[in-house]
Amino acid sequence: MEKENETKTEQEQDQVVNPWEVSAKGTGKIDYDKLIDQFGCQRLDQSFVDRVFRLTSRSPHIFLRRNVFFAHRDFNEILDAYERGEKFYLYTGRGPSSEALHLGHLVPFMFTKYLQEAFKVPLVIQLTDDEKCMWKNLTVEESKRLARENAKDIIACGFDISRTFIFSDFDYVGGAFYENMVKVAKCVTYNKVVGIFGFTGEDHIGKISFPPVQAVPSFPSSFPHLFSGKDKLRCLIPCAIDQDPYFRMTRDVAPRLGYNKPALIESLFFPALQGETGKMSASDANSAIYVTDSQKDIKNKVNRYAFSGGQDSVENHRKYGANLEVDIPFKYLSFFLEDDEELEHIRKEYGSGRMLTGEVKKRLIDILSELVERHRAARAAVTDEMVDAFMAVRPLPNMFN
């Protein structure tokens, strides 16, 4: 049985982490060690980074090297199988609730692209337009429109169309996919789903019946056009750790239905500009850098809103140095500054007070401006025809080559 956070009600927990709420009492900072213990997943240590490098002959992604992806379930089994010459497929997704993505939304897609390239495996990307229709009070039409808009941002990350199938639930659910949903639903009691997700009597039944929809893309038979006759194909899911409850449930029922348990590789939350209080808020435009932000917007947001660990005066800063534990510009650099040596140089100089907050923010503004501009150019090149092509239900004959 997968470990579940069913022992305490959500009110009693020091921190609540589920797909719809991320909060912690006191400082508001998520304790990831405690979360690993609470969820029952494992920490991703250096041995995995070294092994990925050995198996793929590619430099491990910055998010792997720097523990952005820090936890896993059965990633070792995926690597064991790969070493034996067995293939797997990737599954990730996005709940399309806003027009534009922020940098936190890009993190799993940037990492998934690396995994797809490094291991040369197929990928399915689920757009849960049905979920957002139910949770965000959007109309069906608006949810479907946002799914296509978000698909353009996802395609702009550079996925290989010969190995990638993007689908929206409103368009794709049916057939073998729906059969698997019903099989999962029969295995999960109401008490169990309340224990895992914290649903209450006030939640409508659409929410309670949704988890199987996100579960079954991890079963290969949900995609007969891709994986016909490959029911034992393993699945690896890169995602943020708030999605873990869905897959604890899935891993519990998978063996009862004759499938392998999906493996997971899970990331930290990308912190808000104002500080590490869980996830960024889509309702507060100044809490995040969006892929639609201009260079001027980025400069303004970083300078005005990025929480600094620097001291209150230059004199004190030179004396005591910056508190890198809380400094958001430095944390953002650790996500996006590729050069390990430069990051280490900034860590030493800024931490000792020899480098000032303004210098660190300037370096961050340059890096984020370049990243966002590159993404914007790539997205501008994505046409509606390209979206249709990625979302077409079709075989991918070269997906493992």
UniProtKB/TrEMBL annotation:
It comes from the Eukaryota. This is Uncharacterized protein.
